[in-house]
Design goal:
The chain is an alpha/beta fold. The strands form three sheets. A four-stranded antiparallel beta sheet has the order 2-1-4-5, with no helix packed on it. A three-stranded parallel beta sheet has the order 7-8-9, covered by helices on one side. It has a two-stranded parallel sheet with strand order 3-6. It is built from nine helices and nine strands. It has helices at 29-34, 38-50, 86-96, 111-119, 161-167, 170-180, 187-196, 207-210, 240-252, and strands spanning 6-10, 20-21, 54-56, 64-69, 79-82, 101-103, 124-127, 149-152, 202-204.
């Protein structure tokens, strides 16, 4: 009857105790495979005509995705289902050549997800805001970054760095001060410098962090609908010192 039996989302995680119930349709991977993944090839070809680099969110869904009953109220009672795995990326490479893709490998990452990303030499992501809840062994601390990775202060799903700092626990703040050599007064610049000094081939910095904006300027709150994706900067917020500070860091760490 044209009504879904199952829908998409993600299980409970850092952002939400009940997961995220997106409610959108899931891919019928068996049908895509029968077409040689023609839709995906066309989709990626068009994206690469528009952009130099494409980030695929929820990369883990290619190994296994979270399937939720369509009548569920939350994403808690879903189940993992197998994704297309290497077959999809083999088809993309065959049609398009080397893939300039960033794999958003966040969330519940299992060995099969890492294996898939590494098999096709796709850079993963490292998020500095996640790094200070444990100790020096944490995967997201800059001294653990590898060249084939993309480092962020935070992503579209995170608070701004100033907003994160204002709500961080005393333990997180103490560790961050020690690790970053920071007094917390310019935490956004200390975090920008930290990821820039890492071995990651690419760093991506939120404009909100360049401008040192509070959590009132957050881009997106996962699992919520009101107000997301509405933030914009205006050119009168931009000052010469913002460009000068970025240029200085870029020069110091060879990112010019």
């Amino acid at each position: 009857n044209g009504r879904p039996r199952v829908v998409a989302g993600v299980p409970p995680d850092y952002f939400s105790k009940t997961g995220q119930l997106w409610g959108n349709p899931l891919y019928r991977w068996d049908v895509h495979e029968k077409t040689g993944f023609a839709w995906w090839i066309a989709r990626m070809r068009r994206a690469l005509q528009l952009f130099d680099l494409v980030r695929i969110d929820h990369f883990r869904g290619f190994s296994g995705y979270w399937e939720i009953p369509a009548n569920a109220d939350t994403a808690i009672h879903g189940r993992w289902m197998p994704g297309p795995g290497a077959k999809l990326f083999e088809a993309l490479e065959s049609a398009l050549g080397e893939l300039p893709i960033i794999a958003e490998d966040l969330g519940m990452i299992t060995p099969d997800v890492v294996e898939l990303r590494e098999r096709f030499n796709l850079p993963g992501m490292r998020i500095l805001q996640f790094a200070f809840g444990e100790d020096e062994t944490h995967y997201f601390l800059p001294h653990h970054y590898v060249p084939n990775s993309v480092a962020y202060t935070g992503t579209h799903d995170n608070d701004t760095s100033v907003g994160w700092w204002s709500s961080a626990t005393p333990g997180e703040k103490g560790f961050a001060r020690k690790y970053l050599g920071s007094d917390g007064k310019r935490i956004h610049w200390d975090m920008i410098r930290a990821i820039s000094s890492s071995e990651a081939n690419t760093v991506i910095i939120l404009m909100q962090d360049v401008l040192g904006l509070s959590g009132d300027h957050r881009m997106n709150l996962p699992g919520h609908h009101a107000g997301n994706w509405e933030w914009r900067f205006s050119w009168d917020q931009i000052r010469p010192q913002h460009a000068q500070a970025l240029a200085k860091i870029a020069a110091e760490y060879g990112r010019g």
